[in-house]
Amino acid sequence: MINFFEIVLVLVIVGLGGWVYKLYQDKNESDREAKALAKEKDEYAELGQGLAEYNQKLQEKKEQAQQKIFDLIKSKGKISNKEAAKALGVSSATIRRYLDDLEAENKVKQVGKVGQQVFYKAI
Fold this sequence. Notes:
Blueprint: H1 4-76, E1 78-79, H2 81-88, H3 92-104, E2 108-111, E3 119-122
Antiparallel strand pairs: 1-3, 2-3
């Protein structure tokens, strides 16, 4: 007949087997999570690279537009917001931002305060 010691031994072995099985499941789950995080990290890296390229293109476009405005000012002597907006095909708000940047770089100077009398000259 099975004595008390053998019953305890069987229960310990079954318990250890269950514990090892649980550890194995936890390890597999951790591995899946690690792979998912690595994939997500790679996707974010690709996204970040795409944003950097996009921002670089926008910056180049802005610099080209500012150079075109500066060239127009040099050729005409002065230019208004309206003339610059028409020449570049952009809004007057965009031209104001471009001209403000050129003014901050000390490339152009605003003459006049407000209205249609405002124009910009090269420094």
